[in-house]
Specification:
single chain; about 425 residues; alpha/beta; ten-stranded mixed beta sheet; three-stranded antiparallel beta sheet; 19 strands; binds guanosine-5'-diphosphate; binds 6-O-phosphoryl inosine monophosphate; binds magnesium ion
């Protein structure tokens, strides 16, 4: 089974980084197919904590790593990430960066920030990393791409052309400071020199790896409900986050994908604005946040916390075609005597549905209908097998499997790399589901 997509099944921060890091140890190539420095993947290895933004988690196990055409790259932030890992003794030589990926420029950051300010109460709650404006320019065919970094003259020319327009916007529309050409051209050339050795034809590289029978992982950033087409628009990110995005974001055909592993928390979080039917009201919100350490990796913002939403999760399974699920952070629920799980939504018409509403206004007004499962109220961090889990914890996992009709092959019981329980066949077997 050489090609597996690993995709967030909720609103991001499901623990994808940790799962990819684990599976990377059984793989040859790990590819990021969407997003940019709006992603934040925290990985614990021994006493060390790593926070990755652009880099696929395979970088920690020395695998070939790809940043695909569907990604956006902030050169300064990527250079920092590379320097940080090198300073900690990791080689970054096996990173391959698509020339077709788009570059986040300082005006994208400035516009993202200014536009959020202007929207006020209607803001999206973006990470303010310039993601939306960069993808907008890509679609508008005004973007600067990684391959433009290869030639200093072309790079300068493109910056000059773009700035002529962007500075007008910044000054006249947003009342923000303009970007200074000379200073930016010099800084961009510095970053370009650092990044040039990594630029490669990554579609070809991945195709060859697949032909050679190598195990390739496709790491999705964010989560399915943040997908630009199918997510909870407009409170979404600007890239395709569903598993299908792996094929366009890397440049391989859909027939090359063998399996799709969804990653979901045993509860739910959301950062930023937007409807959230199972958001917890009352002190349990804060309890889940504290126990789960639910603070954004990128922005440090408090994550909003809620109970598991199987309506949303079934929708994600549909959109991404999960063949298996990793259920993370089950340990966080150990503190609760009762665990509400949302199985249907009640719509304003009074109708109850287990299918995710197709229209924004229905989703906005949806009330969760819960089934309350018993908690286990004991720590599970020491379990070595799924069968070691308390009965109520196993029932919780089985409940998810039954509702999704997808096997749960991995269960997270702690943040550390080794705190994952796997169904029969071990961790590597979850790649073959
Ligand atoms: P990602 O964006 O999907 O990679 O997730 P983040 O890294 O942003 O957030 C997940 C957080 O949960 C990280 O701090 C992980 O170290 C942590 N984590 C992952 N899996 C588990 C788990 O099974 N239990 C606990 N307690 N923490 C986990
Ligand atoms: P990882 O990969 C959680 C959210 C932002 C905001 C919306 C749009 O760590 O799971 P953007 O800056 O992308 O334009 O913001 O999307 N968002 C995420 N939330 N985890 C992420 O990534 C996210 N990436 C974007 O909070 O609501
Ligand atoms: Mg994250």
């Amino acid at each position: 089974m050489p090609a597996t997509v690993i995709v967030g099944a909720q609103w991001g921060d499901e623990g994808k980084g940790k799962i990819v890091d684990l599976l990377a140890q059984h793989s040859d190539v790990v590819c990021r197919y969407n997003g940019g420095p709006n992603a934040g993947h925290t990985i614990l290895v021994g006493d060390e904590t790593y926070k990755l933004r652009h880099l696929p988690a395979g970088i920690l196990s020395g695998k070939d790593c790809v940043i695909g055409a569907g990604c956006v790259v902030d050169p300064g932030s990527l250079c920092e990430e590379l320097d940080g890992l090198e300073a900690r003794g990791f080689s970054t030589e096996r990173l391959h960066l698509s020339g077709n990926a788009h570059v986040v420029m300082p005006w994208h950051l400035a516009i993202d920030q200014a536009s959020e300010r202007r929207l006020g109460k209607l803001r999206i709650g973006t990470t303010r990393r310039g993601i939306g404006p960069t993808y907008a320019d890509k679609s508008y065919r005004l973007g600067i791409r990684v391959q433009d970094l290869l030639d200093p003259k072309i790079l300068r020319q493109k910056i000059e052309v773009a700035l002529a327009e962007k500075n007008l916007w910044l000054e006249r529309v947003y009342g923000a400071d303009p970007v200074e050409l000379e200073e930016l051209a010099a800084r961009s050339e510095e970053h370009a020199q650092r990044l040039r050795p990594y630029i490669a034809d990554t579609s070809l590289l991945v195709d060859r790896a697949l032909r050679d029978g190598k195990q390739v992982l496709f790491e999705g950033a964010h989560g399915t409900l943040l997908d630009i087409d199918h997510g909870t628009y407009p409170f979404v990110t600007s890239s395709p986050t569903v598993a299908g995005g792996a094929t366009t974001g890397i440049g391989i055909g859909p027939t090359r994908i063998d399996s799709v592993l969804g990653v979901a928390k045993a509860y739910l979080t959301r950062v930023g604005e937007g409807p959230f039917p199972t958001e917890i009201e009352g002190p349990d919100q804060e309890r889940v946040r504290e126990l789960g350490g639910e603070y954004g990796t990128v922005t440090g913002r408090e994550r909003r916390c809620g109970w598991l939403d199987l309506v949303g999760l079934r929708y994600a399974a549909r959109l991404s075609g999960f063949t298996a699920l990793a259920l993370t952070k089950l340990d966080v629920l150990s503190a609760f005597a009762e665990l509400p799980v949302c199985v249907r939504y009640r719509l304003p018409s009074g109708e109850e549905t287990a299918d995710f509403p197709a229209h924004q206004s229905d989703f906005h007004a949806a009330e969760p209908v819960y089934e309350v499962l018993p908690g286990w109220e004991e720590p599970i961090g020491e379990a070595e097998e799924l069968s070691d889990l308390p009965d109520a914890a196993r029932r919780y996992v089985a409940f998810v499997e039954e509702h999704l009709e997808v096997p749960v092959t991995l269960v997270g019981t702690g943040a550390e790399r080794e705190r994952v329980l796997s169904s029969s066949g071990g961790v590597a077997a979850s790649l073959a589901h």
